[in-house]
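Intended use. Records like the one below are meant for learning the mapping from a protein sequence to its folded structure. Do not use them to infer anything beyond what is encoded.
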Amino acid sequence: MSPAATVVADLAAPLLAVVLGTAGAGKLFGRGGPRSASRTALARLLGGGDRAARALRGLGALELLLCAVLLALPPSVATGGAATALGAGFLGYLGYARRAAPGASCGCTAGDDGPVGGRAVIRAAVVLAGGVAVALARHPWWIVVPSHPAATSGAVLAALAGAVALAPDRWRLPWRRLRLRLTGHPLDGTRAVTRVPVAATVELLERSLAWQSAAPLVRSALLDHWDDDGWRILQYSGVHGGGGGARPVVVLFALDAAASRDGVREPAVRVSVLDADTGEAVALTA
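Structure written out for the chain above:
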């Protein structure tokens, strides 16, 4: 390997440890237990939410153990092989989940309750690639970090950017709110500043004919919302189609940002369905 590739491989252990540690802590200590586990494809595979919850807690403990090994011990083929096998297992499970239970979540992280999408597959591939890199590493990370500060800083920044891009939708909300605080709300000074509560908009939506027509696609609670040009956009995850042709989608509803039940009986609602992986528009009816 080139010197640059060697440094990257040497830094893979702590970066992979953060990925596994975060996911493992969410599974082992996250709230919800059997109730959230029952919504995963693992419940169908194992025959029940209780079994799925126990399996997820066991997997979380394994991820935390591997995290500790990656941080505390020098890299080795055995450690890298274990992480590679874990990543390959994740990919196999995700393939099963998309085929056998397209509307279910994977249970990969504590904040991801939508159907399996491209980000989950990429996260599993990152674990597999990280395991390969650890197996190829030559030096412990605690030796490489002080001797290559520039490469370390670049790797950390790249890892943070990747983590934000691949994070579940619920984990991305704080970043969006921070961006609005730093850059200002795009609708400041417009009529949307009336600030109708989001809960009131959701209640209005769920009483509309548009919701009744699109509800069969929806598989999640409200994941995100924002205001744009007088409209309030509400984002949900869902599944379009059935059987082998089912695919995860993003369902977007747009309502008047100033509307509420007190003033509107039947709101005007725009509905958009987008493929969760490609972003392409999908017809509302299968």
